[in-house]
Specification:
By secondary structure, the protein is α/β, with parallel strands linked by helices. The chain has helices spanning about 10-20, 75-80, 85-105, 140-160, 185-195, 215-225, 245-255, 280-285, 290-305; strands at about 1-5, 25-30, 50-55, 65-70, 110-115, 165-170, 175, 200, 210, 210-215, 230-235, 240, 260-265. α1 (about 10-20) crosses α6 and α5 runs parallel beside α7 (about 245-255). It binds uridine-5'-diphosphate (UDP).
């Protein structure tokens, strides 16, 4: 089995690549290294099951593969807003190119979608049949609409060419492998705490997220890919926590003397986000296991290096 992982040098992609290699599978990683980090593969350099190709998926490419794991796209708001038009192109052209490749190879295709597709949700928890409440003109729209067109393309390829499609709507994920400059909450807070700086809380800190540890997420992705039919699922933790509570946990773990400051809340920042994961449990027998205290401790260790 040859696995093609697009965005394989990124946070989730590189953790998935390691797990596939641990299982003895062959992996080709495709990444343009715009936000991914080649150093994530230091220990795979001499592994004959691993291959790296530097390539931007907005351009088509021919590769022999059995399974495509399509993760390529900057995922942190800070990163995907740097060049929003490029983000939209990556989501649209990149996903078409990878679906075309799946069609040519008759490969299984897993698309990394996002909780972002629910937008500024009016429903809690968010279940897969909720259609979302989305701003199509805001600063997050390139990513929100990008992931929505990605899903739409997946299902059109399924209906038209009977492609075997899996869509994972991934909720906030954290853990070892996160880049120090990623710009998302948990890496920001840990890096700030480790350098004795005040933690930057955007807004009043009462907004919530549900943070899933990376090993749990990768397990869910593997199970989803193994499912016998086309399937769309939420994958994430259903333990909701406020941003202020996350700050307090990290301060407690790193240095209880630290404090935080309040900064303006970015535009369209969702106020509550929590997945309904009953479908994942009933279809693939998956639910996350690692609690946030253990997950944060592991992530702090990783970011100290
Ligand atoms: N956030 C924050 N301080 C930071 C980074 C993020 O308060 O230094 C907040 C952000 O406004 C959002 C939440 O943390 O409400 C999660 O942000 P993140 O960028 O991790 O991802 P999002 O879930 O918004 O895509």
């Amino acid at each position: 089995m040859i696995n093609l992982v697009t965005g394989g040098a990124g946070f989730i992609g590189s953790n998935l690549v390691s797990e596939l290699i641990n299982k003895g599978e062959k992996v080709i990683c495709l990444d343009d290294l715009s936000t991914g980090d080649i150093n994530n593969f230091e220990n795979l350099k001499n592994n004959s099951n691993f291959n790296f190709i530097e390539h931007d998926i907005i351009n088509p490419i021919k590769i022999k593969t059995d399974k495509i794991w399509h993760f390529a796209c900057p995922a942190s708001p800070k990163k995907y807003q740097v060049d929003p038009i490029k983000t939209s192109k990556t989501c649209y052209l990149g996903t078409i190119n990878m679906l075309q490749l799946a069609k040519e190879n008759k490969a299984k295709f897993l698309f990394a979608s996002s909780s972002e597709i629910y937008g500024i949700s009016k429903k809690f928890p968010q279940s897969e049949n909720y259609l979302g409440y989305v701003n199509s003109t805001g600063i997050r729209s390139c990513y929100t609409e990008g992931k929505r067109i990605g899903e739409s393309l997946c299902f059109d390829f399924y209906r038209k060419y009977n492609l075997d499609i899996k869509v994972a709507r991934i909720f906030n994920t954290y853990g070892p492998g996160m880049n120090k400059n990623d710009g998302r909450l948990i890496s920001n807070f840990i890096v700030q705490a480790l350098s004795n700086k005040e933690l930057t809380i955007y807004g009043d800190g009462k907004q919530t997220r549900s943070f899933c540890y990376i090993d749990d997420l990768v397990e869910g992705l593997l199970k989803l890919m193994d499912y016998s039919d086309t399937l769309l699922l939420n994958l994430g933790s259903d333990t909701e926590i406020s941003i202020l509570e996350v700050a307090k946990l990290i301060i407690e773990m790193v240095n209880p003397k630290l404090n935080w400051i309040y900064l303006p809340l970015p535009e369209d920042d969702p106020i509550r986000r929590k997945p309904d994961i009953k479908l994942a449990y009933s279809k693939i027998g998956w639910s996350p296991r690692i609690d946030i205290n253990e997950g944060l401790r592991n992530t702090i260790k990783h970011l100290m290096k």
